[in-house]
Every structure is written in structure tokens, then in C-alpha cells.
Amino acid sequence: MPQHKSAAKRVRTSAKRRERNKANKTRLKNIVKKVRETKDKEQATKIFREATALLDKLADKGVIHKNKAANQKSKLAKAINKLSEEKKA
């Protein structure tokens, strides 16, 4: 147990932030999974835009690292481009 008021407040705020970060990371995982599972290029592109916005937002807030956001966006874009190549073949 914390001995000081400021330490008690730190415990409370840390718990709130942890829950918020956990929820945001779960949202991110779900939207990335949704992009990967979608077989229609137009639908995947639409979801990709939402995922990109969320990745940037979480990177700005420090929930995830900026490089991780960039890497995920790159990999998702590659996956979407691959969808269009498969339809041509």
C-alpha cells in the first residue's frame, strides 16, 4: 500500500491508463485482424484507412512505438496490394 497521497494517486492513475491502453491495443489487434481476413480489396482498403488512423493515434499517444505503427501500416498495405494481384492472375 502507498504511504503518501501522491503515491496513492499514482496507483489510481496508472490503473486507469493501463485499462485504457489495454482496450486500445485490443481494438488495434481486432482491426488489423479484420484487414488481413478481408478478401475484397475495396472493403480491405476501407478498413485499412480506419486502421491507419488508429495506428497513428496510438503512436502519438505513446501506446505503441512510432516505428511499430509504421511497420504495421506497411505490412497491411502489402497485404492489400497482394489481394489485387491475386485477382488479376
Question: Can you describe this structure in just a few lines?
Answer:
With 89 residues, the chain is mainly alpha-helical. The chain has one domain: Up-down Bundle (Methane Monooxygenase Hydroxylase, Chain G, domain 1), CATH 1.20.58.110.
Account of the 3D structure:
- This protein has 89 residues and is mainly alpha-helical.
- The protein has a single domain (5-88), classed as Up-down Bundle (Methane Monooxygenase Hydroxylase, Chain G, domain 1), CATH 1.20.58.
- It has three helices and no strands.
- The protein has helices spanning 5-37, 41-61, 66-88.
- α1 (5-37) packs antiparallel against α2 (41-61) and α2 runs antiparallel to α3 (66-88).
- The mean pLDDT is 94.
Q: Which secondary structure elements does this structure contain, and how are they paired or packed?
A:
Layout: H1 5-37, H2 41-61, H3 66-88
Q: Would you identify the CATH H-level superfamily?
A: Ribosomal protein S20
Whole-angstrom Rg: 18 Å
CATH topology: Methane Monooxygenase Hydroxylase, Chain G, domain 1
Number of strands: 0
- Which stretches of 5+ consecutive residues score pLDDT under 50? none
N-to-C SSE series?
HHH
What average pLDDT do the residues reach?
94
Q: How far from one another are the termini?
A: 64 Å
Structural class: mainly alpha
> Please, how many helices?
3
What is the CATH class designation?
Answer: Mainly Alpha
Query: Major sheet: size, sense and barrel closure?
Result: none
CATH architectural label: Up-down Bundle
**What helical percentage do the residues reach?**
over 70%
The outline comes out as elongated
Strand content: under 5%
The tally of structural domains comes to 1
